[in-house]
Amino acid sequence: xxxxxxxxxxxxxxxxxxxxxxxxxxxxxxxxxxxxxxxxxxxxxxxxxxxxxxxxxxxxxxxxxxxxxxxxxxxxxxxxxxxxxxxxxxxxxxxxxxxxxxxxxxxxxxxxxxxxxxxxxxxxxxxxxxxxxxxxxxxxxxxxxxxxxxxxxxxxxxxxxxxxxxxxxxxxxxxxxxxxxxxxxxxxxxxxxxxxxxxxxxxxxxxxxxxxxxxxxxxxxxxxxxxxxxxxxxxxxxxxxxxxxxxxxxxxxxxxxxxxxxxxxxxxxxxxxxxxxxxxxxxxxxxxxxxxxxxxxxxxxxxxxxxxxxxxxxxxxxxxxxxxxxxxxxxxxxxxxxxxxxxxxxxxxxxxxxxxxxxxxxxxxx
Length: 366
Known about the structure:
By secondary structure, this protein is α+β, with helices and mostly antiparallel strands. It is 34% helix and 24% strand. It has eleven helices and 16 strands. It has helices at residues 44-58, 108-111, 116-126, 150-158, 203-206, 222-233, 239-247, 268-277, 292-314, 318-331, 335-349, and strands spanning 12-13, 19-22, 28-41, 62-65, 70-71, 75-76, 78-82, 87-91, 100-106, 132-143, 162-163, 168-174, 184-189, 196-202, 214-221, 251-252. Strands 1, 2, 3, 4, 7, 8, 9, 10, 12, 13, 14 and 15 form a twelve-stranded antiparallel sheet that branches. A hairpin with a 5-residue loop joins strand 2 and strand 3.
């Protein structure tokens, strides 16, 4: 389990009270803003040890409702919430599964409580767990120079001069907070169901004047979240990497400058902003490769229950019916299926030697 992290790294102070990493331009500050993950652990005790480590790291305390189910993608039988807002849920081991299924959410209010470099070390340590996956990862890029104005973004969106998503939703103006003259507005790129969604908004109004900046914020979910998180922890807490993850999710281009996106030029103000940030990083998911093993897993998860119901109906005739379905399936095998069969047979006869190469250097935590 994780032991308590020593917060000894030197944080970078932004023009207000939060902490983050300064980009190559001092007025640009970038930081992780949300982390949600799942992990499988041997026992409930192991999960409680992990939560105690989070309590120590964030100077926090959990209250547990062990008989209070909650749903976060799937149903969890027990849940807890900390004073600062960490949410944690788990399903204990059963006769059917010999592990504790765990879910943890660290919202922005919790993440911003510690220096960005310390949070980076925590993330590297969490990633060292087996069966660990990130399901949501947010990154915030704060522009204290307010280099790009709302009107420029709206004009580009209205003209269709943006890329990275097909959906744009401007929501302006909204009076927010007690700050005199505060004007809240937000422009979304990407639908609410998208695995990557960008928000551009007036942080001064949202924070009631605490952070006087315009914020570019990206929300990664599902597989995009896991890949973005991997990119983040494989660097030495490089602010340009984090900032590049934000600017890689949306771009503003002149649609009339080329017949395809690769030949279209950035709008001048976006090109200048990319120069300040240091560029952009595109998250590309690994191509899905179908295998016999994945097909077997799909049958176990999605088909086995239906087959059991059919057997109850057909009784002694079930095997005859199933053999007929398999025979008809054999007639429909295509080249892709035949390649999968050959690869599976080769692996069965000549299993590859197993080697484990970590994707990053594990961090020593004292």
